[in-house]
Design goal:
By secondary structure, the chain is mainly alpha-helical. It contains 18 helices and two strands. Strands 1-2 form a two-stranded antiparallel ribbon. A hairpin with a 5-residue loop joins β1 and β2 (156-159). The longest helix is centred in the N-terminal third of the chain and has 25 residues, at 116-140. It is globular. The chain starts with a helix and ends with a helix. Mean pLDDT is 86; it is low at 390-403.
């Protein structure tokens, strides 16, 4: 039936080719979704038009379905994978009632055959503009600048600069660096690496976000070493055990997070020391989440009370920081498994293509996700949306090339249809 529709459309000989322009359409849609969610994480008071989000979601669904119908040469394996992902995401959405899972599904499926670097460039553009606007808003009073005084004597001063919490501001900068490194790849310069190091120090001074600062400095050091000793890194990535470590790192980190959380006991001195001094009570919070909500197939809504959005610290603070624990409890066991498999598959794609800096970034995200909850939040983490782009199609070089290829396919289909009629 879909083939018949494609044939009829090609027979109409319409100049506008939907598939050729899909990348532009997708990137505009992506910018809207990311921009909207970003603004929701700020202290701006925005009165959105009625049904704005629902309308955007419906438009996204229609466009993505049309894109997949018009796409050429989709394999049965790809169709099966898309159906599995769609089923799991939609079930988790309906059971757990987290709306953004629908957004994420739209963006994952829509990224099919879109250049992943252009996706990252779109994120960088949206973040850069909105971060500047938000910081200016915080400095001019248009948005509240939340300032936290933490520690026994209030010696830790942490500013959010218009974002809802200091660590969220730091997270945006971390993923901005991740995306930038992947876009620049082997062409990144020592000057750019130096600017990243200075930016990391500035973010730490403003937010006192220690985990994000460590991640940023690790990124700077490893990228610097990878550039300085490029040949040695290329030899290293060719070793089977290194490839295996990279590909299975998300699975290993997920297992470590769940194992430590499940066995955590406040009476165990070793685990208590690790929890308080190393992971900042993440094990205790994770264990409480398991005790209160348990593990289910497709998740459940979890009432969290964090520090964000107000300087008044709640007495009943409860927040699941680890992405691995958060995905399993809030969105369900199947959702967690599907995302970890896709994460490892995404790394495998880049391992095969020997993209050293991108592999480094993906590995760091796996490590960071043990401590941070932003992995599945697509407005922070762009690497959740490029899964289908990176695994199935790295992207064509230009729109002109796209149009020529698709027009040739349409011409062949039209000629075949005419030949059948003549015969």
């Amino acid at each position: 039936m879909i083939k018949d529709i494609k044939t009829k459309i090609s027979e109409l000989n319409i100049d506008f080719d939907y598939e050729a322009y899909w990348e532009i359409i997708y990137l505009i849609l992506l910018a809207f979704f990311v921009g909207m969610r970003f603004l929701l994480s700020t202290m701006f008071t925005i009165y959105w038009p009625k049904y704005f989000y629902r309308t955007l979601t419906v438009i996204g669904v229609v466009l993505v379905l049309l894109h997949l119908m018009m796409a050429k040469d989709i394999s049965k394996k790809e169709i099966a994978a898309m159906l599995v992902v769609t089923f799991v995401f939609m079930m988790s959405h309906y059971v757990s009632r987290y709306d953004f899972l629908v957004d994420l599904l739209i963006l994952i499926l829509g990224a099919y055959r879109v250049n992943f670097r252009n996706i990252l460039k779109t994120y960088i553009a949206v973040w850069s503009v909105l971060l500047v606007v938000t910081i200016i808003g915080a400095m001019t009073g248009l948005a509240e600048n939340l300032v936290y005084y933490q520690g026994e004597g209030g010696e830790r001063v942490r500013m959010a600069l218009g974002i809802c919490y200091p660590t969220d501001l730091a997270a945006y900068v971390v993923f901005l660096m991740f995306a930038y490194v992947c876009v620049r790849d082997e062409y990144i310069t020592y000057l750019e690496i130096g600017v990243m190091a200075i930016l990391a120090g500035a973010v730490y001074y403003i937010t006192d976000a220690r985990t994000d600062f460590i991640v940023m400095e690790m990124l700077v050091v490893v990228v610097l070493l990878a550039k300085k000793f490029k040949k040695q890194f290329e030899k290293l990535i060719n070793k089977k055990w290194v490839k295996g470590v990279c590909v299975f790192l998300p699975i290993v980190m997920c297992l470590i997070a769940w194992s430590m959380t499940i066995v955590f006991n406040a009476d165990n001195d070793v685990l208590t020391f690790i929890d308080r001094k190393v992971v900042s009570n993440r094990l205790w919070m994770g264990k409480q989440a398991l005790n209160d909500y348990g593990i289910s197939a497709f998740g459940k809504y979890v009432l969290e009370k964090g520090y964000g959005g107000s300087v008044e610290l709640p007495d009943d603070y409860f927040f699941i920081d680890s992405s691995f624990i958060s995905m399993g409890v809030k969105y369900g066991l199947f959702f967690l498994l599907v995302n970890i498999v896709m994460f490892s598959g995404e790394i495998y794609r880049f391992v095969v293509e020997k993209k050293i800096l991108i592999i480094i970034v993906m590995s760091m995200i796996a490590i960071q996700s043990f401590m941070e909850h932003h992995y599945i939040q697509y407005w922070y983490n762009p690497f959740t949306t490029i899964i289908s782009a990176s695994m199935s199609y790295a992207g064509r070089e230009s729109l002109h090339t796209k149009k020529e290829e698709v027009m040739d396919l349409n011409r062949n289909i039209r000629d075949n249809a005419l030949n059948k009629r003549k015969s």
